[in-house]
TrEMBL record:
Catalytic reaction equation(s): 4 porphobilinogen + H2O = hydroxymethylbilane + 4 NH4(+)
UniProt remark on cofactor binding: Binds 1 dipyrromethane group covalently.
HAMAP family (alphabetical): Porphobil_deam
Gene of this entry: hemC
One annotated Gene Ontology cellular component of this protein: cytoplasm
Enzyme class at the top of the EC tree: transferase
Annotated metabolic or biological route of this protein: Porphyrin-containing compound metabolism; protoporphyrin-IX biosynthesis; coproporphyrinogen-III from 5-aminolevulinate: step 2/4
Assembly and binders: Monomer.
PANTHER family attached to this UniProt entry: PORPHOBILINOGEN DEAMINASE
Record organism: Pigmentiphaga litoralis
Note: The porphobilinogen subunits are added to the dipyrromethane group.
Pfam families: Porphobil_deam, Porphobil_deamC
Cofactor(s) of this protein: dipyrromethane
Name by which UniProt lists this protein: Porphobilinogen deaminase
Amino acid sequence: MTHDRLIIATRESRLALWQAEHVQAKLRALYPQMSVELLGMTTRGDQILDRTLSKVGGKGLFVKELENALMDGRADLAVHSLKDVPVDMADGFRLSTILSREDPRDALVSNTYPNLAAMPPGAVVGTSSLRRESQIRARFPHLNVQPLRGNLDTRLAKLDRGNYDAIVLAAAGLSRLGLGARIRCLLEPEDSLPSAGQGALGIEIRADRSDLQALFAPLSDTAATAEAIAERAVSRALGGSCQVPLAAFAQADLDGGLSLRALVALPDGSRVIRVARAGRMDDAEALGQAVADELLAGGAAEILAVLNAPDAPDPHAPDPHGE
Ligand SMILES: NCc1[nH]cc(CCC(=O)O)c1CC(=O)O
């Protein structure tokens, strides 16, 4: 099949537009004859910013409208921050391509403190990610972790207004928006193990568009793909709920090896179950599954049972934006 024209469906936040434009530029460079355009859309997730998104549909809310555009042919592909893509894709869709990964670490932004260790008892750290919250509480129990919502610019504005002493964000999002200078320090994986897919971009297509799969193949990054497969296998095996503090971080090496670290925690940081294992890039899914099994056997099953119980306390309305 030949392609004269490709349409990229995208949300209209600054981060989403940057990501779509990044893929647009790569496709234009690969296929100079082709017209590659963006179709900007507002999703339900963008509209409902003041309510508990996990209750009205979770991460899927941000992709539904884009998927409708793919389904009825208004667009050919959608570009996502991989960590926002649900581990189980909606029927009829698939991730075709995972692009090279930027810095996967979390970053501390503060107008006062150079790092978390320098913050005094009671200092306020903003994050709405249960994954970040539980790890900060475990390592720095004297800090006061408070919810923080909104897109990147909104969150930085709240910090600058003095509502927080520091906030934690993904380094990749900040650098994509030209805000890398605001990073005071990067959090090492020992202090804040990243979320599955953090820092990577994924292209979503309709499952029947194998023509596009082939067309995008040159954009695919082998290491990032293996890492994402392993990390997402952990999330999938553990239920992928955004009510559960869960981190999964894989690193491929040049010899085809793949190391994977993952953790499941209680939101208050009083329990953190950690597993690390090494495997092979070409067996990434199995490595993720093995790590998930080891987590479950090591105490994660109890944590999941507590957090997924029907009467579990809602920690503070976790925000898919928070990841
Ligand atoms: N839902 C928010 C979101 N989705 C992707 C990123 C950052 C970029 C990335 O991790 O790829 C962020 C912001 C954040 O977590 O601070």
